[in-house]
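Usage example:
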Amino acid sequence: MEQHLSQLGEFGLIAQIRERFGTPDGVTGIGDDCAILPQQSGRNTLVSTDMLIEGTHFLRRDISPYDLGWKSAAVNISDIAAMGGHPTATFLSLALPATTTTEWTEEFLRGYAELSERFGVPLLGGDTTASPDRICINVAVLGECPYGRARLRSGALKGDVICVTGSLGDSAGGLKAILAGVKRDPDVQRLIEKHYRPIPRVPEGEELRLNLGVNAMMDISDGLGSDLQHILDASGMHAEIDVTALPLSLALKRVCTSQGWDPVELAVSGGEDYELLFTCTPQTEVLLSVPHFVIGKITDRARGDAKINWRGAQRPIGPGFDHFKKK
Ligand code: ADP
Ligand code: MG
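Running the assembly step on the lines above writes:
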């Protein structure tokens, strides 16, 4: 039967691709933040790639080329941080309309370079082509970590506590403010900056990797609701989240109060925070030196059909972002 992607959804399509291609022994392929390849040296190479499309991921009239360059590098490097890896190189592919100015490309590269230099990641190649209309950016990122030590989405264990490395919802609040044309006071400005200039949690990811009790990890790109679901699916677990424990920044709370928005909805369903979401044993959690917030725990059973029990929620909680499904 013919089915459109709007019904199948982004993750249905990825499942279709995954079924079509096998994964060689000893390799982790589709399904985590990065692929993991064993090296002769006894270390693991991590690889990930992510695309940003004008009109879908950004609006050219709103984002500066500097911020777009920064964000393109940041969101990719974040997938290496998500596994606890060390980023080693990026490759940048650009499809640009011929009308793009050299001033634009210079600013784009300045932002890309600034974020990359911050984490010492060189740009080693890519591809360049003309686009008829929209800007399309693809980045591939390489990283590494000791053999078998990358943290997967599938490692969560019953009794683990669920943690995040920073506040949630700021980026989604910033996007909402941009789209609604909200006046840019310092709070709104802060949220917009989080949206345009996310900082991948690279040292935090590497530090967390050193703690053996950290069992599962990923970065939050689609939103807590959707991304936690990936950990639960991969680990065969359920979860209880204490909605009142979700870390919300003061800026987000103030902007939400003045605009009549729900900060919890932004924290749960809004994406692009690029904080790390991880699970660890309670004994490990109390010893962690990386700043973090405990937001819930892993269980082997949930009430009802849903895998996540949102405790203390004032209203029903919806799913995160899917590129093909309409909300
Ligand atoms: P992330 O949000 O961490 O970038 P995604 O949700 O985009 O991860 O992707 C989930 C998994 O599916 C990843 O392992 C990714 O490599 C894989 N994937 C996504 N799109 C494709 C594709 N077109 N072909 C092969 N694998 C894909
Ligand atoms: Mg990711």
